[in-house]
Amino acid sequence: MRNKNTWLTTRLRFSIWTLVMVFVLNLTVKGTPSTHIWIPSTDIQGFNTWHLGIDNYIRTQKVNGIRGAGIYDIGLTTGVLPFKKVQAEVGIDYLSMGDNVYDDHPLYFNAKIGMPEGAIFTNSPAIAIGAFNFGTKSKLTNYNITYGLIAKTLPILGRLTLGYYMGNKDILVDELGKRANSGLLAAWDRTMSEISDKLWISVDYQGGMSYIGALNVAFSWSFSKNVSVIFGYDIYNNRKAMYNSVNTNANTFTTQLDINF
Length: 261
What we know:
- The protein has about 260 residues and is mostly beta strands.
- It has one domain: Beta Barrel (Porin).
- It is built from two helices and twelve strands; from the N terminus they run αβββαβββββββββ.
- The protein has a twelve-stranded antiparallel barrel.
- The protein is globular.
- The N and C termini lie far apart (about 50 Å).
């Protein structure tokens, strides 16, 4: 018969290790977290709420005579902390980029933890740190992008967001293969209550000369309390940057269906 103390010790170690692994996974594992248009936002899913996102990016131009494939993303995100002042979310995405090599490894993970506006002190900004595009294939889909953000809503003007990101230097490169794995994150967004509480507009920007650097403009219409659609346009910083050997970085038109439940 197995020694009871040994069994308890082993079980305790296993439980502690499991908790550690869950914590690490929750804090380090994109697909897409809660976003503005292209970049992450300080918004975080509430505890035990779920968000389904279906995003399409359709190439509208050609580069060197090649239009290139679009990008299609289906993602699921959920809130995991039952607190008002400290919140967190985790998510998984199925991402198709029109390339058999990448599309053989379509799963990406993301996570975010942060505090909403006013949580630290009266009128304090929202803050968030997170990670996205944690793929499953080393040296191919492990973009491993981490970021930090602060955001503040101002009367009349709307919400301003500012931050910075860093990712895998071996994958996030420019057209010459030079490192382009970090940059500015910035956004402005506002609900246009003067027109309708259902109308939201935003502009966001991700710096850098890799294929993920872009300026994005969009508006969203809420068809119900839990369903909205974003219509936007993405202007990439470096149209010569290529995320694989066959595709282009031509500008895209995007639609993003968001369902909360």
